[in-house]
Prior knowledge:
CATH class of the largest domain: Mainly Alpha
Number of helices: 19
Bound molecules: arginine
Largest sheet: 2 strands, antiparallel
Structural class: mainly alpha
Amino acid sequence: MKMWSGRFGQPLDADFERWQRSFPFDQRLLAQEVAASRVHGPALQKAGILSPSELKAVVEGLTQIAEKAAASPAFLADDSAEDVHHFVEKKLVELIGETGYKLHSGRSRNEQIATDLRLYVLHAIDQAREQIGELIAALLARAEQAGSAAMPAYTHLQRAEPVLVAHWLLAYVEMLFRDQERLADCRKRVNLCPLGSGAVAGATLALDRRGMAEQLGFDAPTNNSLDATTDRDFALEFVQVLLLLSLHLSRWAEELLLFSTQEYGFITLPEKYSTGSSAMPQKKNPDLLELARGKAGRIAGDFNALVLVLKGLPLAYNKDLQETQEPLFDAAETMLSLLPLVTGWMKEVDFNYTRMQEAAQSGSLNAWTAATYLAERGVPFRLAHEKVGNAVRLCLEKHCELQELSLEELRQFSPEFEQDIYARLSVESVLALHDVHGGTAPARVRQAIAEGNRRLTAMREVAHAHA
Ligand code: ARG
């Protein structure tokens, strides 16, 4: 039996019927649907609609439905269920008879889908936060292992200054901490319960909304029934955070793709996460990185789909809202399957420290340090910059580095140069010079790793308290 057939004299067009069903994708929400129904039941009993024995039958029936669905996907094979709400009602009636139809008293699918989706997003947020934690832990471990190894940092994709490999890894740690904070913040706005909002104007029975919200683990009930039944900000906000996260992962992927080329040679791709070519026997292709880069495009598509469905929607429920489900599921599932692979890759990849170190030592990456040396000796920085620039020009002619020029040669550019300049031009000295909070001086980086570990522990404690 349909949930609404009474006023209809004719059956639906078969193609339309099939086309408008959401059960093929909203069956993902079965656990959430059952959980929400399990708190609606007791509220109905309090409101005098279900007797204690009817409530018992309803709750047992719902439990069985959840168990059967978990045990066998075949249980979900149903091409007449319109959506997950209809499916559960049908199964409940099959199991406990017409009492099952009482469960829909005083409620609407509009509040149910809003509730199910919020529960889905809460769970996805918790999983994503845990997975981000694993990735941060892997990056911090790699940063620790990298010790004093240096590499070039790039601006405009041109070698700029040396940094510790650890410092470079910590840049991604920062992005991920921001993403996880955004998820934690978004969670607060998701964690409100629409149950009892009815179709549009509020439940038609005196339901204990606060009690239902609490039993489902929500912070509180939502405040306005029109808003609550049509609000999908929570989904959009969540996908927006995933989009930002996916952009970070795409940047990570792109950098490592470059580093894996023979031209850079900074890393050796882990075989476990690479594939070969069917044509060129020598190939090892970085598929994980490429797919990670590509997934950002896909999640951006999901985000745009949500934006465009929601734009201009009048209050209150409109069936357009059904179109928010698939992009939401796609974005969540795409990210939740990607993050653990990125972590696995990060643990396996080999860094070619020697090659990175060599690159950090060539191309006059110590030129700014040389200019700073002159500035410390009273030369106005702009002039010091010019003098060192001239020295670099000589290096380019001679195919050498600044430290390979003789003191005499250096003094042609600036008499302030003394013997001690050579010590200042080593990679170690250049790194040590960047001794500010957030800089690459080894002591600062050691502190940053310790601080990262501390923040990770704190973040995991909060996340566990939610889960
Ligand atoms: N499958 C529907 C959705 O996702 C559930 C709500 C249906 N409500 C309605 N008034 N037809 O939006």
